[in-house]
Amino acid sequence: MTSPTSRFPLITFVGGGNMASAILGGLVRQGHPVDRIQVIEPWDEQRARLAQQFPGLTLLAAAGPELATPDLVIWAIKPQTFREAAAAAADFLGHPLHLSVAAGITSDSIARWLGSERIVRAMPNTPALVGLGMTGLVARTAVTPEDRTLAESVIRTIGELVWVSTEADLDAVTALSGSGPAYVFYFLEAMRDAGARMGLPPEVAYQLAVGTFVGAATLAQRSGEPPQVLRERVTSKGGTTHAAITSMDAADIKGLFETALKAAQTRAAELGQAFGA
Hints:
This protein is of the alpha/beta class. It has helices at residues 18-29, 44-53, 82-89, 107-114, 145-155, 167-178, 180-197, 202-223, 227-234, 240-250, 253-275; strands spanning 11-14, 37-40, 58-60, 72-75, 97-100, 119-123, 133-139, 159-163.
């Protein structure tokens, strides 16, 4: 008789760091049994943390014959360690769907290292840690509709997702949303510090800045109107907001911001070339 848990796909994580922990937490919250998940994590301390956080989880220091053949492998490792990890694990994984969350490493490299064409690349971001991630995905042509559904079911446990057409598009996703939380935190720092210099206690300035970002983002998400329309509604000619926007336009903040995103996009492509050879 088939057990109820066997109806869930068997998922193997290669790497047990922050993003793996976020996805693990999302899966468990959605009812995926921990006995249908296994993690390959070489660091003793991280395995101990995962064992405490997810009792019953199968934790391995390295891939080996005891590794059960998974339906899905999630590669949650740093780009510079991917090739070595793939070489160590490939012989023990069978023929699963591969889902990579490693920045920059192309599916061509992954296919060459693993001898598989069933590969989905994903670029999540750190709000996945609180279930509010934004993830871009791209699939190789061998990925079936069922494979896409499986990848989506995993990624949706940590937030929202979009599919893009090419891996070059995924470099843009990396620049926009993968690195994007850092830009928000950068602006939060600037608003906190500016508020403090204007006389507010730093903790009050920070609370105001965070609340403003959360509220504005929620309004943008729910209204469905273009951002310029939302901005114009707050910007009365001759008013305080108009003064701030005029100052930013004079400094070409939009142009500088685009330059910064293009630098991130270029670096994402460079990572693939550097570590995917």
